[in-house]
Amino acid sequence: MKTTTQVLIVATALAVALSPEALAQRQLGKKKGPTSKLYLAETKGEGQIQTEGKVYEPKQATAFDAPGTIIETNDDSHQAFVYSNGTGMYVDQNTRVEVDRFVQEPFQPDRNSTSNEPSISQSDVFVSRGFVAICTSALVSGTTMNYSTPNGSVNIRGGKVAIDTSPKETTVYLLEGDITTRSGGKDIGGTILRPGEKATIRPGPTGAPPSITVSPIEPEIMQSLDDRTAVACNAKKTVTFEVIEKKAEIGAGGPEETVTPGAAPGTTTTTTETTPEIVATPTVPEQQPTNITVSPDRIQPGPGGE
Fold first, then answer.
1. CA-atom Rg of the chain in angstroms
2. pTM summary value
3. Sign of the C-alpha dihedral computed for residues 124, 191, 79 and 283 taken in this order
4. CA 226, CA 161: separation in Å to the nearest integer?
């Protein structure tokens, strides 16, 4: 049997936990990050983007929620995207990319450079087939960026990386930065690449783990890798991301009405909740191109009628 003292302690604890001040403190303690975005900076040819259960035709300068998005390109086509953490991604022809996970913490208010990641993020992207090139910003400490394929995976800590995958093998090219490649779940340590190196991951014989072979990138393909990675880097310059606070009323006489503990029966209150949302804003070139057309009859003849 509980003593009177124990009952008082429990009652006091419940009163504190249910007090408006305690509820407010728990709500203030929440720091839910905004839904991460993908911005389509460049598109050529045909393909499709599947997001939130719908399939869309790629249209340049459009943004959509990144988590769960599937990107596919057809023959003679490519697309370039920018994640809302400032990372550019080039998607070559006949490629399928699945953004399994991409979450961000609230943007840092004191960030002063678009070349730096705005907040800590975690991303897991699956390239089931084809070729992608990644160009990152300076990543914040604590960020994780993983790209996987049917044959292995790569952990990107920053730089310029290209991934080419097929059922037979996956090749990871490091042009600049710091990455670790892995051949499977049992490859805990992984293989660290240096700039100018590539890692080729091939499935092993039946029952054997995949193998990784490291070698220098062939000079004859370096220019092609540079060109496609440059598209990803240039895409980053076409957009900026900011966070706005959207306000929504809760408890306005509807099913989500809020009952204040201790208030008279039937009394409800309406509160305003703010939700952070990332907004993509296309950038404008600092100097607009000047194309001046002068009609011939406006040109004054020179000396001698010339």
1. 27
2. 0.75
3. positive
4. 10
Segment among 79-83, 110-114, 128-132, 265-269 with least mean pLDDT: 265-269
Domains in the chain: boundaries: 37-238, 243-282
Cβ-contact 133, 232 below 8 angstroms: yes
Amino acid at 105: E
Name residues whose C-beta falls within 8 Å of residue 137's C-beta, 6 or more positions apart in sequence.
85, 86, 87, 114, 115, 116, 117, 236
Q: Which fold has domain 37-238?
A: Jelly Rolls (2.60.120)
Overall size of the chain counted in residues: 306
Q: What pLDDT is stored for residue 128 in this prediction?
A: 97
Helix (H) or strand (E) holding 173: strand 170-182
Which residue bears the tokens 């084809």?
130
d(C-alpha 251, C-alpha 198), whole Å: 57
- How far is 98 from 86, CA to CA, in rounded Å? 18
* Amino acid at site 230: A
**Residue 297 DSSP symbol:** G
CA distance 72 to 98: 9
Half-sphere exposure for 287 (CA within 13 Å, toward CB): 3
Rounded to 5 degrees, φ, ψ at 195 are: -55, 135
- DSSP type of residue 116: B
Of 183 and 197, which is predicted with more confidence?
A: 197
Half-sphere exposure of 166 (CA within 13 A, CB side): 4
Q: Locate 152 and state its tokens.
A: 């292995």
